[in-house]
Automatic annotation (TrEMBL), chains A, B, C, D, E, F, G, H:
The lineage of its organism: Bacteria, Bacillati, Actinomycetota, Actinomycetes, Pseudonocardiales. Residues 89-221 form the PurE domain. PANTHER family: PHOSPHORIBOSYLAMINOIMIDAZOLE CARBOXYLASE-RELATED, SLL1489 PROTEIN. It comes from the Bacteria. InterPro entries: P2CMN_synthase_LarB (IPR039476), PurE_dom (IPR000031). It comes from Pseudonocardia abyssalis. This is Nickel pincer cofactor biosynthesis protein LarB.
Amino acid sequence: MNEGFADLGYARPDLDREQRSGLPEVVYGPGKSPEAITGVVRELLAANTGPVLVTRIEAGAAAEVAVPGGTYDAAARLLVWRPASARGFRVVVASAGTSDAPVAAEAAAVASAVGLDVHEIRDVGVAGLHRLLAEREVLGAADTVVCVAGMEGALASVIGGLVGCPVIAVPTSVGYGAALEGVTALLAMLTSCAAGVVVVNIDSGFGAAMAAHRLAHAARR
Amino acid sequence: MNEGFADLGYARPDLDREQRSGLPEVVYGPGKSPEAITGVVRELLAANTGPVLVTRIEAGAAAEVAVPGGTYDAAARLLVWRPASARGFRVVVASAGTSDAPVAAEAAAVASAVGLDVHEIRDVGVAGLHRLLAEREVLGAADTVVCVAGMEGALASVIGGLVGCPVIAVPTSVGYGAALEGVTALLAMLTSCAAGVVVVNIDSGFGAAMAAHRLAHAARR
Amino acid sequence: MNEGFADLGYARPDLDREQRSGLPEVVYGPGKSPEAITGVVRELLAANTGPVLVTRIEAGAAAEVAVPGGTYDAAARLLVWRPASARGFRVVVASAGTSDAPVAAEAAAVASAVGLDVHEIRDVGVAGLHRLLAEREVLGAADTVVCVAGMEGALASVIGGLVGCPVIAVPTSVGYGAALEGVTALLAMLTSCAAGVVVVNIDSGFGAAMAAHRLAHAARR
Amino acid sequence: MNEGFADLGYARPDLDREQRSGLPEVVYGPGKSPEAITGVVRELLAANTGPVLVTRIEAGAAAEVAVPGGTYDAAARLLVWRPASARGFRVVVASAGTSDAPVAAEAAAVASAVGLDVHEIRDVGVAGLHRLLAEREVLGAADTVVCVAGMEGALASVIGGLVGCPVIAVPTSVGYGAALEGVTALLAMLTSCAAGVVVVNIDSGFGAAMAAHRLAHAARR
Amino acid sequence: MNEGFADLGYARPDLDREQRSGLPEVVYGPGKSPEAITGVVRELLAANTGPVLVTRIEAGAAAEVAVPGGTYDAAARLLVWRPASARGFRVVVASAGTSDAPVAAEAAAVASAVGLDVHEIRDVGVAGLHRLLAEREVLGAADTVVCVAGMEGALASVIGGLVGCPVIAVPTSVGYGAALEGVTALLAMLTSCAAGVVVVNIDSGFGAAMAAHRLAHAARR
Amino acid sequence: MNEGFADLGYARPDLDREQRSGLPEVVYGPGKSPEAITGVVRELLAANTGPVLVTRIEAGAAAEVAVPGGTYDAAARLLVWRPASARGFRVVVASAGTSDAPVAAEAAAVASAVGLDVHEIRDVGVAGLHRLLAEREVLGAADTVVCVAGMEGALASVIGGLVGCPVIAVPTSVGYGAALEGVTALLAMLTSCAAGVVVVNIDSGFGAAMAAHRLAHAARR
Amino acid sequence: MNEGFADLGYARPDLDREQRSGLPEVVYGPGKSPEAITGVVRELLAANTGPVLVTRIEAGAAAEVAVPGGTYDAAARLLVWRPASARGFRVVVASAGTSDAPVAAEAAAVASAVGLDVHEIRDVGVAGLHRLLAEREVLGAADTVVCVAGMEGALASVIGGLVGCPVIAVPTSVGYGAALEGVTALLAMLTSCAAGVVVVNIDSGFGAAMAAHRLAHAARR
Amino acid sequence: MNEGFADLGYARPDLDREQRSGLPEVVYGPGKSPEAITGVVRELLAANTGPVLVTRIEAGAAAEVAVPGGTYDAAARLLVWRPASARGFRVVVASAGTSDAPVAAEAAAVASAVGLDVHEIRDVGVAGLHRLLAEREVLGAADTVVCVAGMEGALASVIGGLVGCPVIAVPTSVGYGAALEGVTALLAMLTSCAAGVVVVNIDSGFGAAMAAHRLAHAARR
């Protein structure tokens, strides 16, 4: 452990990440047994003082993780211990359609767990622009907007043109056919005509929240 | 010729298309010599009474086509004989950025040549939404909107949400990297969240104009 | 509601779309609970006077939507309230093979629900051209042809060459291997040698019907 | 040479291919110097008695190949020594558009050089079906049809439905945008709804001619 | 029926294909109910005199098709009525690995059903070349070789270099990762260094057999 | 102009973007004539008070832009008027190889022009990790790191693991073959195992700089 | 069998591979019945003296293979008879994340079975570089490193820069969205900035082990 | 320099790579000026004692590099100082076609420069298998075979089946159409049915040589 990690044989949790970079070590749930998750979470709780997260974990598996004190968010499929208290960095999570809800929920829950102030705006896709324009004030007060959209992902460009703060675009796999399981939204967001929009992986609400966490870190210095 | 086409050896112009479907036979310029174009245009002018078009022809080649009475539009790279007079079907050609101008010009020039009323709106990309919203009245009066955009092609979705008339989306190869030479805009337009938007091939201002021509045909019946 | 939409928390139905563009607000079924669908449908029925549709909904879920007066079409997987009466715009839905039937059924049912006159022609793929040519009269009388085909999608080009009215091509995911789940038909239709053919997303019978609805709107002005 | 090949250092011409399989050794021109081509051609002429071909060679380079007795076909970019005399196997080379001409020319010239009876039909794309149907008799008399088409490649399906003889489809790189430099035509031909159509590489008139040569070989046994 | 097809409402079997092109009308099983298959098979048996085939049909569905006289081949998933008797055209079906067996079985069974003499060689992949070279005599006596291979598909090139008769390559979806579900074998076969190899769709044993049938047709004239 | 944009016919510069979002309107050079650029730049300088930029403009064209007071940066291909003075937001631009220099130069020059403090670290690719580790102190003091890398883009993951501040990854088109003109680096950066790394378009040094500008904006509030 | 293979009808095990190349004949499990596997394994055990392997076989099927003396490794899904004893060639199998464990297990188990000395290092992804650097001594003592990583696959580049011995990179299908089921890691490893890294197919722990076996063979000569 | 690298501002040559890993630091020529190359080469020659290489440099640029003692290989486009003397590790570079010669030349020249014994076999593509089989003795004596092939890349599988030593496959961009600029050969080599074949990037003769160098390193320990 004096090397900055624990060696559990099957995993090496990075125990000094929190210290090194201010980022929590997060456990990616899929493919891990509740026992393995239990082991890693214990190590992380013991070695650090900040929040510990397990992402993309189903309710059944979450119930089997034998570490007290965690809370489970079913919509976000997230387990959290020691969530950070909010420190005044405002993140607006805007999503285009109701099918984008799970990804938006992950972004919102992870961002809350690491201490950001989260406000959600749902179902503001650009085919009914007035729904988005009604939220201009909320968007204008944001420190960062996380923009969640599938299909053609146009919401990122429209929001990127409305605000000057960072816009983190999350393409989702919502859609069919030419949506190519999120690749179309991904490519569209990367080629947004609104300057300075940044993009994370398809369906990665988690990635967007961690990017927002990095921004809050920079803003606080 | 009683078979409905001429056999020039190197080409078989479809002489009864005008009669059969109301669509002009159009000569696609690239890869054809001025002599070959001259031969085909003569056949078409002789056998029909409507407009005859040569698309994507550069000024130098256009000057060598030895058929009197044609007019050349350099921006659209289009040669036209016997343009149709306008018959009251209003087509608005809206383009997202100044780099989309050549494709928009082709759409506008072909549409005019086949007898549509064309109005152009330029540089109304969604990153500055007020530029588009200032044209709501023009859009609302359109019988059809041709929407020309590269990069992420979001303009099609926004216009598709504003109007109830047909929206023909033309993806362009404008952009770099993840724009994939127009494939991204193409995919985005096909997955537009605005219902009933239709799409033509990348950079095909011609295709959009011909589609509008088909619509005008349906509307007039 | 004076903002033109209802805020149900989980969704913001666009209540003035009908007024704004003549297009119905349509609920995309997949991923929504019967309760959520019930809530949105009620809002839409209350705020508007036209048809309300739920697409791609299986029989089981449809039975649980607690809004009286709807009718369910199993072949099209469509729920409809207040279908519009036909207003004389003739749409021919032509499909290439028997496997394309579900997509053709969706196109036909949605088109009927929004007030178009629909005529279906089935199993007219180009490998047996006489089957299609036997329907030339029907095709010639159409205001619009919706062309549904998978595999190589050649039907769109052949029909596009036979008629002068709008041809809306719907690629389907029928086929295997190099059919690439509909991408091949999509690309083929986009590059059709018949001028002015327009294309919607893979398997989107709904999109084609809405495009036809926009055309009827333009034709009626 | 008793090993069945010559070792020129830079190349090992396969001297017993003609004997082994009845197929000529063909020299692919691009990237080879006239001197290298000269060396290989001399070996092949000395070791065998049949035709010797150099494909895709430009006029300038062809003129520098220092082996007497060859004839150059500029349209096909083909150099031939000792062409075979025709032996009554009828190959029809049908091409969709005038831009497909160079590929069709290569197919026709190579097929002639190896002793097939070639008949060309040009500009019979499916957008004007009557142009193709006027040639039904010619197609019906073919031992094999080579079908050359770019864009959406629908010609292969239509011809495949009209005839019972082998149909060898050659996709071409003609078209732009979604034509993807011939990939769309290739995929479309591979998924043709006409059973038993076979496909060669994009723009490979040569490959189609050699396939026809193999067929003639089988037919003669 | 005097139009050359029957109109069953849900399908239009092409009744004069046998007469027109010598090819049987074949029913593609997936997605069709046993009742629908029964109806089409009856029409085809009544209107023609040759073989009638249903491909890719599982044993359970095959048992429910209510048309007497058919035989079912489980390995090939093929139902056949009135198989043709062999007429002396020798087809060798060579497959690279044991996992390619189902595709090879379909090719062999369909080819037999339409009257070809079939000989199978299995597990002759190029990693153990002596296994293939031991069959040189069989290959040399073939009128056509159908070459079935997944993964990198190299077998087609090696066989194409050994024989002068037609080689019909069938890529299979055998393999994982970079095999891309058969796309790699498909591309590799299309770019074979052996001249004149032709290719059909991924896993299409049926397509290869029908192509061989067309060849036999040409050979017999 | 009271609509917030100027209508120059060929372009509609967005005159209130600076006011609306704090972002400068930037002119993308390619495809625009020096005259057109001159016209737009004049409008922007007159209507706003902040920096005005023209990106990706070659030296020859830059010299023809007839607006006094601009400075040209050849490495970055950037023209700037009224650059902002630095306001203490530290951006480190780290690049993997010497071939990535032009993209890094664009990022650095644009970031400087909009008022960020820029520090460059060059040639710190991960194949020689000690070169990067020697800069840990510089990286640790950054408010944001822009990470520029082509080929496999691994630098983003390594830096993302070392620092807690925002990491903006810019994939470049450096590399050949499987580098796929930057697509590989793009995909790799999007799937980085370091949480919260964000990505912009291939070769878009400009996009990264504008994203950093948005971050600085958020940090200053 | 004097031809160097056995002909079991359904398979032709290559009996002289061991003699010819020192490589064992390995049976790929998927798609084969326990009976077929039993037959092939018996032939191989009888004809050779070295190890015999069956890969990717699930526990249930493995239990049904009726050949005594085999041992089953569940993590690696591997059945082995007559494993070779270790001969002092040190292979380090390093994996990036815990989800890569199954592929690493296959690599390790196959390498052990063919007589290599295997040492595993797990969970040393580059986002926590100190975990890898703590193993520099182990890496430095390796004769070969097998590097197993999904997502962006950066581990191969970092290890490639640290050691001079052969580095065999195995991309895995771990990750989602832009990871494209392992294609991203594959492309990234192929374009590694560390010179001389070699790559095998996605998830092919087996391929990496066999490559290491070939290396050991070369090293021993 | 005590940090193990030199900081030239524009580049950081890795001065202790030779010591750390036994691999030379190699300068990739494209995009670097002769002056920059001169600077880096001088640093490397001064800091180390082994060979220094510049790859992919054209004759003109090579002549301007102002460092005495280098030799230029035009076929390989390689500049070398202080080539290592051969140490008895036999590398056979086998190439499929004459168009693959430049890539084979780079592999051979780099391998020689770093001290390997190189033997070249050219034009042994699998379409004429006897050309390859005539070299079985040479292949059998190799410590490693580098296999260079474009198009379908089948040579790697055939050689992989013939020898037990390491086989390093180099796909080339030779071919057209479905060859996809080398991607097809790359995919085919990765899915080779011959176990344990490893692959490097398209056209990377350099990568293959460096991989062979790593093997020699392992073999010598």
